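Troubleshooting log. The previous structure file for this entry was overwritten by mistake, so regenerating from the original sequence record. Sequence copied from the archived sheet and checked twice against the printout by T.R.
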Amino acid sequence: MISTSWQNVLNARSDKRPTTKDLINNLFDSFIELKGDALYGDDSSIIGGVAYLKDLPITIIGQEKGKSTEEKIKHNFGMTHPEGYRKALRLMKQAEKFKRPIITIIDTPGAFPGIEAEERGQAKAIANNLFEMMTLNTPIISIVLGEGGSGGALALNVSDITFMLKNAIYSVISPEGFATILYKDAKRASNITDDMKITAKDLYEFGIIDKIIDEDDNLHINYNNLKNNLYSNILELILKYEDNTLLKNRYNKYKKF
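Regenerated output below.
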C-alpha cells in the first residue's frame, strides 16, 4: 500500500499539476516578462516579470518545469542555473526600488547540479539570494507549488508568508537522495517519506509554512480563492511595511526556525 506521504511525492511530480505559467495566466493581469541577469544570460527555468493582482502592481518570480517533453527540456525541468537566481534577485531589487510586493512560485527538484553551474557560481548565487531576501524591504509571499527541493527552493523562499499546495512537498533533499544516504538504495525512497516530514500538513504543524492551499482529487486548485487570499495577505503585509515592522517580523520568523 502506498503511504500518504509518498502519494504526495507522486502528486507533486505529476504532469497534471499546474505550473508557474498556469498561475500567472489565472491569477494576474497584464503580465510583462523580464529576462536576463545583466551578467551572463537568461535562464528559462525562471519566469519573472511585472503584473497586476487585481489593482496592485506585483513582481512575480517563479520556477517553471513545463508539461510536455519539449517544454521540460526548454525549462531544464525546473532546475535553475546561477543566472536564474541572479535574474530573480535583479527583479527583487527592482521591486524593492519601486515598492512592489513580490510573489515567488517554487517548483524545482533542486538547483541544477552540473559542472557549468558550479563554474558560474551556483552556491554563491543561492547564498546571495538568501542573504538579500532577508533584508529586502518590500512584502514577499512565496507559494510552494509542486516540488520544493533543497537550496534550489530556498533561494526563492525567504518570505513573510509561505503558501503551500496540499499535494506539494518541501524538503532538504529528495526522497531518493535521502534513501541513498541512509540505506545506499534509492529504491527505498517510497518507504522513508513518512520519516522525512515533507508534506504540507507536516510543515504547517512545524510552523515552516503558513497556509495550505487546497486541491481537488484531480490536482486542480480554486484560482479565485487563491487570488483573494493572496490579495488580502499582501494588503496586510503592506500595512506592516508602512509601520516598519515587516523586516523585524521576517527576521523573527526565521530566527525561530
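Residues 66 and 72 are 5 Å apart (CA to CA). Archived copy saved in two places this time.
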